[in-house]
Amino acid sequence: MKNKTIVIAISGASGSIYGIRLIKALLALNTSVMVILSDSGLKVLEHEMGVKKDEPFKEFLISYGIDINKVMNLEIFFQDEISKSPASGSFVHSGMVVAPCSMKTLAGISQGFADNLITRSADVCLKEKRPLILVPRETPYNLIHLENMARANRAGAVILPPNPSFYTFPKTIENLVDTVVARILDHLKIDHHLVSRWKS
Ligand SMILES: Cc1cc2nc3c(=O)[nH]c(=O)nc-3n(C[C@H](O)[C@H](O)[C@H](O)COP(=O)(O)O)c2cc1C
Fold first, then answer.
1. Alpha carbon of 113 to those of 5, 99, 107, 139, 174: distances in Å?
2. Ligand 1 binding pocket includes 162 (Cβ within 6 Å)
3. Which domains does the chain have, with CATH numbers?
4. What spacing in Å lies between the alpha carbon of 41 and ligand 1's midpoint?
5. 120 lines ligand 1 (CB under 6 A)
């Protein structure tokens, strides 16, 4: 059976580790991944994850511990590459996640302002009724943020805020982040054992 393909966008909100852990988990589960990086997303990756300026993103992922053989199932695009596959409804994939999703990218998606490869690919997901999961990161939210989330949700997006859970007693930042990544995988309908499930 052909591997699933998931599109992951990393925009310029704090928490680029959510996108990185999601890429790692999906590749480990033999899923093909297309990553779209916004310009600001790259800046935050440099600041928060130590990605070096001009360092090929694949090299960073390998240095982060992602299996070099799995990296073959990964394609990387930048926000200006508007003609790449996910920009077209005729390219079929299994869903898109924006993690983290900045308030600017959220605004673009919720208003149909498809001015780059991230907002266009999300717009395509909504029109094609494919899963679109937004991981909006800001605190606190103002009314514009909340209304944009409600609008995106009404159009079909899942709003999955990066609110970690604590009932599995995460010991590291990675464990904590993975409690959110696990819920994203659930919504993508991808089987995993990333985090143990609540059972009483
Ligand atoms: C270190 C850093 C952290 C940021 N954190 C957030 C954030 O958590 N949420 C947010 O909406 N914007 C945040 N921003 C601002 C966005 O990067 C900015 O609004 C940018 O225009 C978003 O562009 P993009 O959506 O195309 O990536 C942050 C910027 C920097 C430099």
1. 24, 19, 8, 23, 33
2. no
3. 5-187 (3.40.50.1950)
4. 7
5. no
